[in-house]
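Just curious: can you write whichever protein you like plus the matching structure tokens?

***
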Amino acid sequence: MTRQVTIAEVAKLAGVHESTVSRALNPETEFIVNSKTVKKVKAAAESLNYVPNIMARGLRTRLSMTVGVVIPDLTNPIFPEIIRGIEKHLAPLGYTTLLTDADSSASLESSVVTSLTQRQVDGFIIATGVEDPEIVKYLDGSGLPVVLVNRGAQGKKYPLVTGNDEEGIRAATAHLAELGHKSIVHIAGPMSHTTSRGRAKALRTAADSHSMKLKVYEAKSLTVNEGERIADKAIEQARGSFTAIQASTDLLALGALRSLRKSGLRCPEDVSVVGFNDMPFADEFSPGLTTVRVPLEEIGRESARQLMRSIEEKALAPIVVSLPVSLVIRASTGPAPELSHR
């Protein structure tokens, strides 16, 4: 069995004190050590194949060095990017993420939160929005720090890291207005989600500013099948009266594209489609999807930064960190039919 290299051996090789090694190898404290010394210590640690003793650090700080991450649906392509950002920030700090999928179920969410608390995680990053008051009550009672990612919660009880949805909706609406669209349909996500409510509200404001007619349909879930069902309904009820669909997410937009093809409508010649998130492979849709790009990985990183601050400071104000987004224009949007026919 390979012998564990000690911090004392690293210190001896680098010619520094053991406490200097600890600071130099900790991303949270290396800034207080001279940069040349940091390089020397890291070179010594690498040459000796030194592995930090995470358990010992946890005993000193009374931390488990684990973080619970709760997401609503692992099959949704936006969450792997967010998780990657979380882990890229936490792993160098010696933390392990315990990932759980609540499967959009309040009862399952309650169960996994309880289970992770019993495993003595140091805090939570939660992407479900924590809409169930019983879960909020349990989290409050646990005393553990919580940071929300992507979706907010009622009452803004916890810090939230998200993209600037209003900015994205304004950009998407302005793009459609420039193309001559006067009447649009919005496929909103479930109104139990703060993201769905916020995007629908922002779209109403943006549509009014461009004198656009707007019809909002609420989906029951953020799935391709539900996007197709809602688009089928919109086409059945109002075919010919709208020239664009703005979907609350890319998955709903993909469902709308399926519905248009099924109905014999062309995109974008007959109806333009805009999504939101720029999930992986959105450029491979047929046609490539115009969408709002959200910095998913950076949102994950920032949520981890906020949680580390909360763990260190023991408390953190319920701030909202809103990261900039951008419109990505692809082939699914084009001039409104009346303009293309001229």
User: Anything to note?
Assistant: The radius of gyration is 24 Å. Residues 183 and 241 are 7 Å apart (CA to CA).
